[in-house]
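Q: Could you fold this chain for me?
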Amino acid sequence: MSHSLDINQYFGSGAIEFIICHAEVSIAFAEEKKIPELLKTFPNATKYLKTIVSFGKVTPEQKQEVEKFGRAIYSWTEFLQLGESQSFDLPVKKRSDICTIMYTSGTTGDPKGVLISNRSIITLLAGVKRLLENVNDKLTEKDVYLSYLPLAHTFDRVIEETFIWHGGSIGFWCGDVKLLIEDLGELKPTFFCAVPRVLDRVYSGLTQKIISGGFLKKALFNFAYSYKLNNMKKGQNHAVASPLLDKIVFDKVKQGLGGSVRLILSGAAPLSLHVESYLRVVSCAHVLQGYGLTETCAGTFVSLPNELDMLGTVGPPVPNVDACLESVPEMGYDALASTPRGEICVKGDTLFSGYYKREDLTKEVLVEGWFHTGDIGEWQPNGSMKIIDRKKNIFKLSQGEYVAVENLENIYSQVPSVESIWVYGNSFEAFLVTVVTPSKPALEHWAEENGISMDFNSLCGDSRAKSYILEELSKIGKEKKLKGFEFIKAVHLDPVPFDMERDLITPTYKKKRPQLLKYYQNVIDDMYKSGNKPLA
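A: Sure. Below is the predicted structure, expressed as structure tokens.
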């Protein structure tokens, strides 16, 4: 079997080498600046890899290195010349043929090769098309999409294919997250996909501007926000809830997102409720949460425009998808209870065809045609799904209490002074500890108010700052009526956000928990040893 591989920032060289050998890739296409990364896979990858094509140029040294192993490398110009004055018949394709092997980045272990058929992608695209038409928001050739998620990510891939199908335009970001707002201003997209971390940054930036804008500006913004939100709660479309205030107050936010965005889709991880509701009001666009996995071809659930009671949910299943809940007794989740809770299972033609060369793993998750996602959901009375937990991300404390860690992180991340948080506990300890990346503006504002003069890095090591963050975490814990064992008893502040460089998160910002534990092991040990005993 001959496979090709598109190399980009999604994987490090170790994973790339694994994928080339696992999928028996014979030709690889790579960005010019990623050629050195690809060459790190030599000599092992040369068992299968015969040809490399650069989307730019190739240096003489790179050509020499590749030819030393009897392999070929072409610049883009050279590659195009190979096909001049030649014609080929396209092979006949069937719906059941595998279109792509999409490797999941995975939070543990080697990446898994997810086999996705032509049928899966077309079924998903047809469902998305039908959904958009049903809510009077169909795509046209005038629509513009900004792509900034990795191309080797299913979420971005199916949106791009939807745009290609509808004849829309696709623009690619410059590659620097700090310049994403400038990219939005330049391209002026109508459709924007985001992961929560990016929307969290947009939210933090906006709230900080309002805080520093003076009393009158703050008062006007708060009035406009409450007025429009109340009208939307009464069932009014966001476009008619307060058109005058949109022009006077919220137009700057809209312009900051390029001025043309009408639909923002958030996926890959849960979006905080306060961020979602805030952006639905101030962005003058639909802000929708979606849910899916590589194995379900990305789209499984998506919330609907102008349905404010779907806030905090991922909406109903998209057309062409069947979904159900399966009870998880060991976690106390009953799919047949008055409030149905359980593991989300998915069935239908959008499902993957199995894991490449891993029939054992395929049988584990595909049972009688139902794909077991590992995510815990709760059906809402309006037919939408709320993600409340992860089946694997639970652990016992030493007193025997089960802790659903993702649910706690979602709650604690609502603290404005917290940018990102990782909560940890185990069965040998009686209480929870955490590593927090504080919000720089929020922590510096607190320090200024309290007469503490330090730079951000020094603040993160200061015991007073730790106590302040701990108090803020406790406040929201009380507000959300958390149980005693769910409260954080010790905190470490890291000025550097969890990142891919240290292998602490996936490209879609999911936490790699084993890697986080390994990286922060000494910090965790110190927190448990340093006398931060649980309160009685």
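A (continued): The first helix runs from residue 13 to 23.
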